[in-house]
User: What shape does this take?
Amino acid sequence: MSYFDELEDLPAEELIAWAVRTYGDSFAISTSFQKSGMVILDMACRINPQVRVITLDTGRLPEETYAMMDMVRSRYGVRIEVVMPDPREVEGMVARHGANLFYADPSLRMLCCQVRKVRPLERKLRQFRAYAVGLRRLSAENRNEVRKVEYRDGRIKLAPVADWTRQDIEAYTRRHNLPVHPLYARGYSSIGCAPCTRPAGNGEDERAGRWWWEEAAPKECGIHFSVNGKIGRKLDILLEEVVQVSHA
Ligand code: SF4
Assistant: This one.
């Protein structure tokens, strides 16, 4: 059994405590303030009130997410490190494909996610040796293989609540009276950028409201899973064009 396999069996709090102990300032909670992200943030702040917290501001977030950031700052007293996309890349992309390119084609949607989410986060994560996210296996079919501990792109990635159910998250949220993103009260079950997220209907998958207009594309932005196949190849070309023009 490997060291990682042993860590895999630790409960969420213990796994976060291990990361705080082992990596100190080189460990961060990465969250978009959805419920599972709030659970790991709350646990981490109890262990170390100075824990580093990072979040992405894609430039297209709903107002309610900014309100949520303020709620978290005032409840926990943490300094939130807000990560933004490279403005030259956003300008290059928008000049070429328009501001709402994501509705045109899945590869253009993923280009937007690369420029506004994946690349900025990758740049920020270079500061860290380990980070934790609120991914859960049961939140979507393609996530059922998520490990609690993995080595990815040169650092340790933890998903401490990977094995939690939605009910576990709800119970922890109530027990500790956690701040709740205001959009849950309006029927959202997964929350991302404003133009790409809507409430999910009763009985729909938790992530059904994300990129709801796409049929054959994975409901992922590329942060947690790589994009392969035909869409991935198209994306590589589109991204190269934008990056070349932006950094010329
Ligand atoms: S979720 Fe939508 S707006 Fe946000 S980065 Fe992805 S495509 Fe762009």
